[in-house]
Amino acid sequence: MSHLADAALPPVAPSAPEPQTGPPGPPGPEHHHALDVSRLARRSRAQTRVRWELLRNLIRKDLKVKYKGSTLGFAWSLANPMLLLVVYTFVFQIVLKSGIPRFGIYLMSGLLVWNAFSGSVSASCGSVVANANLVKKVRFPLAVLPLSAVGFAAVHFLLQLLVLFVVILALGYSLLGPELLLLVPAGAVALTFTVALSLLVSALNVRYRDTAHLLDVALLAWFWLNPMVYAFGLIQNRLADLTWVYLLNPMAVVVITFQRAIYDPPPGNSTGSAPILANPGYTFYLEHLAVAGVISLALLWLGLHVFRALQADFAEDL
């Protein structure tokens, strides 16, 4: 019986070994990977801060140099749109009789952003060449040179736009409305397109010095491809179903959007022969801004690619 009782008892499991105590082992590869990622992230943030600080300093320096010794200083940038407004109103509304009511405001609502664009691209084109000694002797992110030209023009543009707003309100015209929000996407597209083209021409001009001369001619012709001294309705009447080809020009889309946001057309939105504004709604502008934004981003990719490919040879080409 005893052997049957013993057989009925369950076998006793061996006791688990005591856990080993001692110093922890070396960290695994996952730990090292996490440290590397954190270190790279901190380095990237630090480099970004340095680039932004350098860009701000360059813009600040350009502003100080431009108005150094000037009695009026920044007031000159504010007086410029006022003088243009008076001159263009006299020439196109009184002398040439364009047929567009309040032609000066219509023109300036598009001309200011065009001037900012053309001024940025022109200055950016020669920015690397003009700083040849700095490029050869100091190691720094070279893209800040054309970008500082864009920032310089952007500061002036914002000041001049503020003056235009003050003039419009002083003349008793409507300004504050939902259409003013169109300035946000239009400004974003204008900035992206300007930066993209500035990077591209600044890099090409180091290798091919004729770039600056070709750019001057192109900008002169490009000015007339934007509806600033004529109503956009004339383009719609002439091109009809092919108007979309005209609107593949991102700056034309930006200009007509700025006009829609700022200019208050007369009842009927017409000069008698053609509409003044492209469209009285908002969807039309947002759709074409989306297309212009895609074009601008594609050009930005190209500009960055070309700039990075050529910047290694800047010192030799200069």
TrEMBL record:
Q: Any one cellular component term from GO for this entry?
A: plasma membrane
Pfam families, alphabetized: ABC2_membrane (PF01061)
> Which compartments does it reside in?
Cell membrane
Cited InterPro entries: ABC2_TM, ABC2_TM_bact-type
- Which UniProt key words apply to this protein? Cell membrane, Membrane, Transmembrane, Transmembrane helix, Transport
User: Could you tell me which residues belong to the region Disordered?
Assistant: 1-33
The ABC transmembrane type-2 domain is annotated at: 72-310
| Membrane topology value | Multi-pass membrane protein
Q: Where, by residue number, does the polypeptide cross the bilayer?
A: 74-96, 103-129, 149-173, 180-201, 213-232, 244-262, 282-304
Q: What is its main location?
A: membrane
UniProt-listed PROSITE patterns? ABC_TM2
Q: What's a single GO MF annotation on this record?
A: ABC-type transporter activity
| A GO BP annotation | lipopolysaccharide transport
UniProt lists compositionally biased (Pro residues) regions at 11-28
PANTHER family according to UniProt: CAPSULE POLYSACCHARIDE EXPORT INNER-MEMBRANE PROTEIN CTRC, INNER MEMBRANE TRANSPORT PERMEASE
Homology family: Belongs to the ABC-2 integral membrane protein family.
Name of protein: Transport permease protein
